[in-house]
Write a structure and sequence with these properties.
Belongs to the cytidylate kinase family. Type 1 subfamily. The protein is an alpha/beta fold and 244 residues long. 49% of the residues lie in helices and 14% in strands. Bound molecules: 2'-deoxycytidine-5'-monophosphate.
């Protein structure tokens, strides 16, 4: 991975810009967004955490995840704040830090299900637009380049073959807790099901914006994908290419 040889010089022109990173689960969005944020001096905002926090609230309230009216009503009594950190985002649900509670398979599945509803999406999009109104952010999700910030200065659509994404997810889960790691086939199956829903929903389906740069990390290490993303942003900023 390239170090930040450009240092402050690189962070200055990037301060107000918006970098949109979209793509399916396990493509490496979070890792790349975190590195880009550090390298170019931007805030890193992970919108999936917001959908996850809302899904957690729906689960706690025992609202059926297909009840669009009840979910819409729930948006009116929910506050979600997202804070960029050095490593991970902190997400506050009605003031409670739920960052550690939103990564399990139940919430993951629920987040994909509640995110199909237009009322939930338009509320989230408003929150996300407010969060990044000042610019100077890398925002990652599924619809950032298409809906949330269609005029973002840089748009990257990150993809990789499902088997590769599933294996990466499995490795990440295993790093945290080997004993409870789900078998890789199951991780790949869940990921395909979630992809299917995220790509085929009527409202803001996961797809590249027409002006997004496509980055397929199937045959790359994450370090290589990070370097490729840095080069894409650097080029947009007119920075000289980093030395290999
Ligand atoms: O990025 P993630 O895996 O944390 O996202 C969880 C779910 O949230 C994902 O399956 C779909 C939904 N999502 C979305 O619809 N739009 C976004 N901008 C971000 C996430």
């Amino acid at each position: 991975m390239s170090g930040n040889e450009n240092g402050i010089a690189a962070s200055k022109p990037g301060r107000r810009m918006i970098v949109a990173i979209d793509g399916p689960a396990g493509a490496g969005k979070s890792t790349i967004a975190r590195h880009l944020a550090q390298y170019f001096g931007l805030l890193n905002l992970e919108t999936g955490a917001m959908y996850r926090a809302f899904a957690l609230k729906a689960l706690r309230a025992e609202i059926p995840l297909d009840d669009s009216s009840a979910l819409e009503a729930l948006t009116h009594e929910t506050s979600i704040q997202l804070e960029s950190g050095e490593e991970e985002n902190r997400v506050l649900l009605d003031g409670e830090d739920v960052s550690g509670l939103i990564r399990n398979p139940t919430v993951t599945e629920a987040a994909s299900r509640v995110s199909v509803f237009p009322a939930v999406r338009s509320w989230m999009v408003r929150l996300q637009q407010q969060l990044a109104a000042q610019g100077g952010v890398v925002m990652e999700g599924r619809d950032i380049g298409t809906v949330v910030f269609p005029h973002a200065e840089v748009k990257i659509f990150l993809d990789a073959a499902p088997e590769v994404r599933g294996q990466r997810r499995y490795d990440q889960l295993g790093e945290k807790d080997r004993s409870s790691a789900t078998p890789p086939e199951e991780v790949i199956r869940d990921l395909r099901a979630r992809d299917e829903r995220d790509r085929n929903r009527a409202d803001s389906p996961l797809k590249p914006a027409p002006d997004a740069v496509l980055l397929d990390s199937t045959n790359m290490t994450l370090d290589e994908a990070v370097a490729a993303a840095e080069a894409i942003v650097g080029e947009k900023l007119g920075l000289p290419a980093a030395k290999a």
